[in-house]
Amino acid sequence: MKDLSQSTLAVVGLGYVGLPLAVEFGKYFRTIGFDISEERIQELNNGIDSTLEVEPATLKSLDKLTYSCELSDIASANVFIITVPTPIDENNAPDLTSLKKASEAVGKILKKNDVVIYESTVFPGATEEVCIPIIENISGFKFNTDFFVGYSPERINPGDKVNTLTTITKITSGSNEETATFVDELYQVIITAGTHKASSIKVAEAAKVIENTQRDLNIAVINEFAKIFNRLHIDTEEVLDAAGTKWNFLKFKPGLVGGHCISVDPYYLTYKAKEVGYNPEVILAGRRINDGMGMYVVTQLVKALASRKITIDEARVLVMGFTFKGDCPDVRNTKIIDIVTELKDYSMSVDVYDSWANPEEVKHEYGVELIKELKLGTYDALILAVDHSETKKMGIDAVRALGKENHVVYDVKHVFGIHDSDLRL
Questions:
Q1: Distance CA 225, CA 296 (A)
Q2: Which H/E stretch holds residue 424?
Q3: How far is CA 83 from CA 100, 257, 264, in A?
Q4: Which residue in 69, 131, 261, 328 is the catalytic one?
Q5: Which regions of 266-402 does DSSP assign to beta strands (E)?
Q6: Closest to 216 (Cα-Cα) out of 165, 289, 268
Q7: pLDDT tier for residue 1 given thresholds of 50, 70 and 90
Q8: Beta carbons of 257 and 290 less than 8 angstroms apart
Q9: Cβ density class 279-310: b for 16+ within 10 Å, e for less
Q10: From residue 6, how far is each of 20, 144, 155, 184 by CA, in Å?
C-alpha cells in the first residue's frame, strides 16, 4: 500500500473542477496545479480565479500549493489527478481530445508505482479502454504492475456556494483493491461528506454519467409539460407548485439545458450504448426536447410579437443573460446562443446583456458582442433568459422600462411572478 503521508499530488487541468480540488488537497499535501494555459497560471499566481469558485484570500494562503504550465514541474508528483473537460463534437459524439492529451502528458513523466486518478466524465469503460493504453504506450510501463489507476468523478456545481466539493459525497474506485483503498482514503482527507467506494472503475464511470442523464430527462419531461400547458393556457409554475405538494413529486423547472454536464453527459452514455448494440430511445428523446427549447422560445416570441402588430424583421430584442445558469460566469455550452441565433434567423436586431459573463470569452467562443449598458425605451421584446440575482433586484418595472411603449417580456426562467410578464415557459 502506498504511504498516504508521502503523497505529492499534481492536478492536471485547473478549471471549475481542478482548481477547487487542488486548493483542498493543498491544505494537506504538497500539491502542484498544472494547466496548459499560461494566462490561467498567471492569474492564479496573482491570487485571482476568473471562475469565481475560489476566494483570492484562499488562493494566497496555501503554502503547499503551487501552479505551473511546465510539465517538468509536476514530474516529482506520485499521484496525478486529471480533471480536463470532456465535451461533445458537432455530431454529439464524445470528444476525448483533452483527455487523451492529458494521458499522454502524464505518461511522459510517470514513474513506477505512481497512481493516476481520472475525474473527467466519460462513458463506462473509457478509462481502461482509452486512457490506460495511452499511458502504457507512452511510459513503457505495465498497468497494475508498474502504475495504478483510480477514477473519482467530479460533482462540481459551478456557482453553488452551498453544495461545494467537500460537502458532496465522493464516489471513488481503483484498478485493484489496494489502489481503490488508497484512492478512497486520499479523498476522505478532504471530503467531509464522506466517500462511496465503488466496486470497479466502470461502475464509478457509469454512476457519474447517469446522474446527469437522469436530471436531463427530468427537465425534458417538465419542458414537454410546459409546451402542453402553454397550449392549454395554464401557467406551468402554478401547476408545478400544486403537484409539488405531494411528497414524492420532483419539482424540476422548465428551461434551456446547457452547461458542461447535463446537456453533454447523456451523449456519452448513448454513444457507448450504440457501440454495444443497444439503441437508446428515452434518453435521446429527452435530448431532442431539451436541445429544441431555444427554437421553441423564439417561436413563441414571434407569435406574441405578431399579435402585438410588431413587425418581426424590424424588431429589436434584448436577451438578458448569456451564462448557462444564474449567478455564475460559466458560458460553456450555454444554450442561450440558440435563442440568439434563432432570433437573428428571423432578421431581428439582437442585443445581449450579461454582467457575469466575460465579454472576450463570449466573443471568442460564440461571436457575440455583449452590450455594456442598458438603454430605456429601446426594445420591442425582452427575454429574461437567465435568472441572475441582478435581474431580480432590478424588478419587473425597471425591466419593462427598457422596452418601447408596445413590447413583449418573455420570462423564460420565472424570474418574476406569474402576472409580471407576457410569456413564460
A1: 13
A2: strand 423-424
A3: 12, 22, 16
A4: 261
A5: 316-320, 349-353, 379-384
A6: 289
A7: low
A8: yes
A9: ebeebbebbebbbebbebbbebbbebbeeeeb
A10: 21, 20, 27, 16
| Residues ≥6 apart with Cβ < 8 Å to 154 | 17, 21, 83, 119, 120, 121, 208
Say which DSSP state 174 is in: B
pLDDT (average), residues 260-277: 94
Give rounded-to-5 percent helix, strand, coil for the chain.
40, 15, 45
Whether 69 is catalytic:
no
DSSP 384: E
Identify the pLDDT of residue 157: 85
Distance CA 37, CA 13 (A): 9
Grid coordinates representing 421?
A: 410578464
Q: Residue 43 phi/psi, 5° resolution?
A: -65, -35
* DSSP β-bridge partners for residue 408: 381
Report residue 334's pLDDT band, with 50, 70 and 90 as the boundaries. Answer: very high
How far apart CA 135 and CA 103 sit, in angstroms, is 6
421 close to 384: Cβ distance less than 8 angstroms: yes
Q: What is the pTM of this model?
A: 0.93
Average pLDDT over residues 146-153: 98
Q: How far apart are the first and last CA of the chain?
A: 55
How far lies 316's CA from each of 290, 349, 377, 391, 422, in Å?
26, 5, 11, 19, 17
What angle is formed at CA 57 by the lines to CA 55 and CA 59, rounded to 5 degrees? 75
